[in-house]
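Collaborator request, handled under Task 6.
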Amino acid sequence: MINWYEAFSLETLGEIDSEAERWAKHWLKEGTAYLWQDKVPVSIACRGGLTPNGARINMVYTPPEYRRLGYASACVAALSQTLLNQGYRFCFLSTDLANPISNHIYQEIGYQPLGDRHELCFELTGLKQN
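Structure tokens returned to the collaborator:
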């Protein structure tokens, strides 16, 4: 899981998360990691934050050698159904709009886009210090 999370963070953030080991231990301790297997583990999705009515899915990752075989779709669909069966009214996730593969996968299994999120960073300049 540590290696997968490092690869996930490198692909999604452009850098390896220095907290990869802590995150992997957290997911294992909390039982929030959902592994999809085909003789060996081939994909992962994690259950993130919960609301009174919904559950967030995050850290969806499939190593490159197992991609385009339907594993991520099956993993996310199964985890989503498990959460719905536990009584949550809906599941939600965030995806990069620039990634047409993940957007297609999520919509194929029933997720619908609700909105876009934009991150803005402002730099303060010209402030006088007393």
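The cover message to the collaborator said: "The chain has a mean pLDDT of 88. The helical segments are 2-13, 20-30, 71-85, 100-108. Please let us know whether this matches your experimental observations."
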